[in-house]
Amino acid sequence: MTRSIEYGQLMHRAMRGLIQQVLETVADEGLPGDHHFFITFDTRHPDAALADWLRARYPEEMTIVVQHWFDNLVVTDEGFDITLNFGDNPEPLHVPFDAVRTFVDPSVEFGLRFESQEFDDEDDEDEDDDDDDGPDGPRPEAEVVSLDKWRK
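Above: the chain's sequence. Below: its structure in token form.
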């Protein structure tokens, strides 16, 4: 048996848990101080829910800003629901954590970037999945990124 510890999957799951905890705190207590978030997600994810006109405008990925006005933030183990204002048009969104590509809080120079991922059920851990190997070998599933472009 040539099984190994899947550090990439474990890190990915831990970073999604961190985002979940942060959003749960914001849902309960609001955004503290100058904190705000840029969250980029894959609009093609099968469980992502957004208005047709938004999906047409952002056919691959979309970055939302959670800052001044947001409503109905509900966080679950799988993702979060939020209503955001698009040109004086409140629109509800559902963003699965598996669809999140980046999570940035520029007020404290914190950010996470998730490598592109398949939307298969993660509970199939008994199968040996070597499909993540690219031409340069296995790719990490999550990593911390530089926030230089968001610095003031």
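The chain has two helices and ten strands.
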